[in-house]
Amino acid sequence: MEKKELRRHLLSQIRKVDDTTFEEVALHLFYYQATYNVLYRKFIDLLGVNPEKVDRLSAIPFLPIEFFKSYDIQADEWEANQIFTSSGTTGQQSSRHLVKDADWYLEQARRGFKHFYGDVSDYCFLALLPSYLERQGSSLIAMADDFIKHSSYSQSGFFLYDFETLSSHLQQCRQQQVPTILLGVSFALLDLAEQFPQNLEGITIMETGGMKGRRKELTREELHHAFQNAFNVKTVHSEYGMTELFSQAYSKGNGIFYPSPTMRIQTHEITDPLSVQKMNKTGVLHIIDLANIDTISFIATQDLGRCHTDGSFEVLGRLDYSDIRGCNLMVSDL
User: Fold this and answer.
1) What would the pLDDT profile of 249-270 be if each residue is shown by its tens digit?
2) Res 31: pLDDT
3) Which domains does the chain have, with CATH numbers?
4) SS3 category, 201
5) Tell me, what DSSP letter sits at residue 277?
6) How far apart (Å, rounded) are the C-alpha atoms in residues 132 and 147?
7) What sign does the dihedral 169-174-177-181 (CA atoms) show?
8) Euclidean distance between the first and final Cα of the chain, in Å?
9) Is the pLDDT of residue 333 over 80?
């Protein structure tokens, strides 16, 4: 099959993928990327893996996420529609995710949200994302902006540091019983909680993580407890996504995340990235993201977590590089 036709066929498969077809589609996408992604093929060759002999998800090699900082990752050759970049930290290089089709990303983001919450249009979105809004290239801002535009409610919008206006919108939505999601980065939600504590019962508080160097890092339990006390809510929701992914996972409480239909999570052993970790044991999160059809769908992250038999997972922290052995040495060889 000619590669353009093959890509169209894969897009069709990904659009309708479900639990029964995920592995089959993922393997087809692996063969496609192993053929047309030059960087990934070189990585596979260094591992001594023959793509033709890969016949299950656990045998697929995962590209270290650090490669997004040093390489333009592409399956086939095409001109980027735009580039998503990570915020990074002082002195560190940001990740760059080349985007062939921004509409495809937004389509999959809406699909992932719908899987857990229903149509985007049914919600009012109040976005408190100052650190992301103040720079260019944020995939989270692109997603939030798209959700706001598709919302049926005029109150939807971004709020930089205007907590007073945001609080007014929140109370208006609560009084009118408008289905509302307050989507915020952790440090900004904490600022709101301290400066404008209020009764937000009935409002969905959804944090995207990240103190971005603005405040002391807190555990998830500490963070959510602070929101519960300040806003009078029983649970706090979370969104798990990153620059390098087109799919997201969501938690409706207690830090238990469920991946979108185009996404699956594995854990691999900390000291042996090629070995899959047992269920309910801590390991490094490896992500299959079918929506990344034009870049790389098999990514070894720097996050520690646990996977459960029902497909859910937890995020427990970040990888300590002093524990890595073996496979990381090949990064410098590419």
Assistant:
1) 999 999 999 999 999 999 999 9
2) 97
3) 3-71+262-333 (2.30.38.10), 103-251 (3.40.50.980)
4) coil
5) P
6) 16
7) positive
8) 30
9) no
Please state whether 282 falls in left (phi above 0), alpha (psi between -120 and 50) or beta: beta
Phi, psi of 59 (to 5 degrees): -95, -5
Q: State the Cα–Cα distance between residues 92 and 21, nearest whole angstrom.
A: 39
Judged by DSSP in three states, 204 sits in strand
- What pairs with residue 157 in β-bridges? 126
Phi, psi of 298 (to 5 degrees): -130, 100
Q: Which amino acid is at 283?
A: G
Strands (E) located in the chain: 63-64, 82-85, 96-99, 124-128, 157-158, 180-184, 204-207, 237-240, 249-251, 257-259, 263-268, 283-289, 298-307, 313-318
Beta bridge partners, 305, equal 283, 315
Question: How many CB atoms lie under 10 A from the CB of residue 2?
Answer: 7
Beta-strand pair 283-289/263-268 = antiparallel
What are the backbone angles phi and psi of residue 161, rounded to the nearest 5°? Answer: -130, 10
Task: Give the SS3 label for residue 171.
Answer: helix
Letter for the amino acid at 273?
Answer: P
Answer positive or negative: Cα dihedral of 125, 128, 132, 134. positive
This prediction has a pTM of: 0.92
| Phi–psi pair at 24, nearest 5 degrees | -60, -45
Question: Structure tokens of 190?
Answer: 């904490």
Going by C-alpha positions, the residue among 189, 91, 108 that lies closest to residue 147 is 108
Question: How many CB atoms sit inside 10 A of residue 3's CB?
Answer: 12
